[in-house]
């Protein structure tokens, strides 16, 4: 190949050593690979014109997903340090760009790199929180979406309602009444950028900075972190087989201004908040004039029996209800909704209008039609059937290897003896395309419980058997 030295450069293992990846550092793995290679090129450790390892080989050597390495290679190709030659492989540029040095300023770092292994990648086996990639109703959705894109292209150019499209808010009023037992009006509904967007709006509108909040223990790590970032002290409140322990909440922080909970299917244990606890929680909120934020992230996606009604169905005055399309349709839509008590509707409307308006209504209107035409309910029914089948398939695959297994909403928990290095197991599993979540990180006290939480939504080609055996081998290795 003209201009290219046939020297194949350092091996994948040597290259991996030069990059020196640090897991759970505050820079993403992709960014670490990119800067590590750029530095190795600048310092001549990866010689100009030499071939670099394939994405697959380097990924195995580093113990990361192939897509992580590919993303770093793409950036290095963009900055002309590498040249991609298709089947002939990837090479260090024969003629390096003039600066021939590490760029002084790297690109903006990926957020949450210590807990989210990568954004913009296809979900891995066992990954929590991502719906089935192979079951998205792509055909009907693209037909509907295309129509709404055409409509907006030729339509009015005025400002849209900052609470989101009225069509979708009205559809949600009907849907929530039927599926979640919530009685509300469209004026109480705000379309948000998912659950996360709704939580941000609530912190802003209720002026929660400087206050205390109950947060479930174990609980959704990102929610706890979000509260702390918003200047709210997250008080961990234990969860038992009935859901959050209200008595403990009162003992630990009676003066909390909010309780942030997942009553439908607790995250990650999957328990439904009992009726008695619902009563205690609402009584506390009324007595203290506090708010309950209901994270209904799995909404109707209850695999066993009928989904319990939402907490907001019991008390529309004290509960702020959040739903998301991230679990039912796709996280790529980045869409959810917030239902606020009637008395707060005006204040929330003003808050979003001035500080956090809803995104473009094109997607809202397409989702509204998807609901209106009955596709959404049909899709949910299909997903429940599919996930129930995948859950039993996963249990069958795990049973020969693990004696104790518990179901937890759309996941299976494998409890492991205290002291097992579950974080290490989860990290090592990434190299095999598996993304179990270590149970310990969901707890405030990271040494209290160990285990692996396995999402059931995405089935690997050929079934779960091989992945289950691989997990067993990893547990033995790090046990
Ligand atoms: C407990 C919990 N709540 C909410 C969400 C959804 O967040 P979003 O709508 O921002 O995607 C998730 C996603 O994993 C979750 O685990």
UniProtKB/TrEMBL annotation:
Q: Name one GO molecular function term.
A: DNA-binding transcription factor activity
Q: Does the keyword DNA-binding apply?
A: yes
| UniProt keyword list | DNA-binding, Pyridoxal phosphate, Transcription, Transcription regulation
InterPro entries linked: Aminotransferase_I/II_large (IPR004839), HTH_trans_reg/aminotransferase (IPR051446), PyrdxlP-dep_Trfase (IPR015424), PyrdxlP-dep_Trfase_major (IPR015421), Tscrpt_reg_HTH_GntR (IPR000524), WH-like_DNA-bd_sf (IPR036388), WH_DNA-bd_sf (IPR036390)
What protein family does this chain belong to? In the C-terminal section; belongs to the class-I pyridoxal-phosphate-dependent aminotransferase family.
The name under which this protein is listed is GntR family transcriptional regulator
Q: Which PANTHER family match?
A: HTH-TYPE TRANSCRIPTIONAL REGULATORY PROTEIN GABR (PTHR46577)
Span of domain HTH gntR-type: 27-95
CDD domains (UniProt xref): AAT_like (cd00609), WHTH_GntR (cd07377)
